[in-house]
Amino acid sequence: MESLAQPAIEFPRTQKKPSFPIGEGLRGYLRRYRREHALPVSYERLRRFHESIPLTDDRGQPTLWDTVIYDGDEMRSLNDDLKRIYALLRTGGDMSVFSHLYVDRIDFCTFGNSTPFRIRIVNAYNDNQDYFYVKKADASRVYGLELEHLLSPNRLNYLTSGTTLIEEHIAGIPGDIFVSRWLTNSELRPIRLAKELVKFNERCFVRLLGDMRSYNFVVLLTPDFDDWQVRIRAMDFDQQSYNGRKNFYLPQFFKENTPLVQYCLKHLRPETAQQYVREEHALIQQRAELASERLGLLLHDMARDAVSPPEKVHELRAALAGHFQRSDYLRCESMGALIWQNLESIRRETGRPVVPELVPE
């Protein structure tokens, strides 16, 4: 982990990147692991709304979302078809337990690269609500979702169909709201939060998930018998392995995260922070070994997929070679190969053997 005392960097807030189509290699992987399905609703179909109304929050303040409206016949058809997609996410397609659900609202966001639709599903018996998202399928985003599923402590449900991507809702307190409303809460044990911040920072770096500013991750608080447990989860995977700057993959360097970095500096000694880094490395290594075949296939496809320009790959490989003091990085010609080398670097910390299946061809 980089020294927490390093200055924050003012990265531009709009890191526009092209959308990469899902290639045949990745598509085959998605079919093999049952992520690819024939879906009754596509992203393009949802774009055919005929009216939109700005959506405000509970305080009457404008949000980045608009509620969209379709004609009556189309809305009735969408209600049934979107429930089928929800059933695929939650019960593998069993509709028998969802007759009491209905689509309450469809929202559209023009902010960011994915311009998603957000579907609100409501239980008619108890008014409980849930969400899922319909987005344009982007190969780098899919790689990000799958790497999160395999290398983090979090499991993710998502589906693909042609040019459409369905993502489940990731619940939690948005990081920027957590900073403003919870960071000084006396009920939270500072060491537990600081420890999780260090571990989250390292997870992002090893699997090259970028742009983790405070509004791109959520904080989950779970009451325990003696205190609160804390978990930080990424919720935006658009900037997976695209940027060439090493610090773009370290959340600690974003100016938006400065209060969190200062919090860690206040409550953690450098030796303790390094201990937590090593702990997370060991956990990542265990997850990689348990999913070695699946992870190997994914990185093999990613190594053949042009999800970042060669000049960005070369810029990043030079920085990683210096960071880990390993010249092996300089032979890498893809982002998939760089992730594999990151995994190999943390394997060498404990002297464990390389898992051959992980080596991208």
Radius of gyration: 21 Å
Strand order of the largest sheet: 1-2-3-4-5-7-6
Mean pLDDT, all residues: 92
> What's the domain count?
2
- How widely separated are the two ends? 29 Å
Structural class: alpha+beta
Total of DSSP H or I helical runs spanning 4+ residues: 11
Largest sheet: 7 strands, antiparallel
Q: Give the low-confidence spans.
A: none
DSSP strand content: 15-25%
Order of helical and strand elements:
HHEEHEEEHEEEHHEEHHHHH
What's the helical proportion of residues? 25-40%
Please provide a brief summary of the model:
With 361 residues, this protein is α+β, with helices and mostly antiparallel strands. Helix content is 40%, strand content 17%.
Explain what you see.
The protein is an alpha+beta fold. Helices cover 40% and strands 17% of the residues. The chain folds into 2 domains: 24-168, no CATH class; 173-358, no CATH class. It has helices at residues 24-32, 43-46, 72-91, 139-151, 175-181, 190-206, 258-267, 270-290, 292-303, 310-324, 335-350, and strands spanning 51-56, 62-69, 101-109, 117-123, 129-136, 158-161, 164-168, 173-174, 217-223, 228-234. The strands form 2 sheets. It has a 7-stranded antiparallel beta sheet with strand order 1-2-3-4-5-7-6. The protein has a 3-stranded antiparallel beta sheet with strand order 8-9-10.
